[in-house]
Amino acid sequence: MKKIVILGATSAMATETARLFAQEGAELFLAARNQEKLTRLADDLRARGATAVHSATFEAHDLGSHQQVMERARSALGEIDAALIAYGELPNQKGCEESWDTAQRSLLTNFTSPIVFLTWLANYFEGRKAGNITVISSVAGDRGRQSNYIYGAAKGGLTTFLQGLRNRLAHHGVSVTTIKPGFVDTPMTADLKQGPLFASAASVGKRIHRAMQRGESVVYAPGFWRLIMLIILHIPECIFKKLKL
């Protein structure tokens, strides 16, 4: 796995994952919104051992530009061994309830935009008959809760899309990996009160790196979230709807 595309590369978990690939001498294509952050990250990855680092900016809501970004990645790398989609936003639930525009923005960022990239990547890897596609979803998509059901709906839809894509591409030698983090200490969760369930971006990045190399299917990060969500999923609806979660 030597030629890797990372979309949302300047996010905390993606950065940590990229550093591990850089240490292995990978060639990387980074895409994110902020060019200044991309430049700093590219310099950091070269210093850590990356063979080469290419970059491009993109705006998640500019869906028409996504194909161009991927064509630039293919041109820069020659071929692509793996891709990581690692961007998203945690919206204010109350704001989403009060404004469709706010809700729509969250759905566009967390669901629609990644699927545009996934459509291109799926067709590319299907033709190549090898490779790995990894996407950061969330445990929030496992069951809708009043505290974040707009975000959860987007991540739940993304997870379902990845399930179908995994089924499709498994017949062509391509692995599709769904990463489901719980609470992670990143700028996106800076407004949340931290507790014992929070994980570091470095530990989750390490888990993503290992999952991509192994071509795993579904990964909870940290692993204890698999048990937590299993319990939550099995609470009867007649009880669950009365809980304040």
Topology:
Blueprint: E1 3-7, H1 12-23, E2 27-32, H2 35-47, E3 52-57, H3 66-77, E4 82-85, H4 93-98, H5 100-128, E5 131-136, H6 149-169, E6 174-181, E7 184-185, E8 199-200, H7 201-214, E9 218-221, H8 224-233, H9 237-240
Parallel strand pairs: 1-2, 1-4, 2-3, 4-5, 5-6, 6-9, 7-8
Q: How does this structure look, described?
A:
It is a single chain. This protein is α/β, with parallel strands linked by helices and 245 residues long. The protein is built from nine helices and nine strands. It has helices at 12-23, 35-47, 66-77, 93-98, 100-128, 149-169, 201-214, 224-233, 237-240; strands at residues 3-7, 27-32, 52-57, 82-85, 131-136, 174-181, 184-185, 199-200, 218-221. A seven-stranded parallel beta sheet has the order 3-2-1-4-5-6-9, with helices on both faces. The longest helix has 29 residues, at 100-128. It starts with a strand and ends in a 5-residue tail after the last helix.
What's a concise summary of this model?
The chain is α/β, with parallel strands linked by helices and 245 residues long. The protein has nine helices and nine strands. The mean pLDDT is 96.
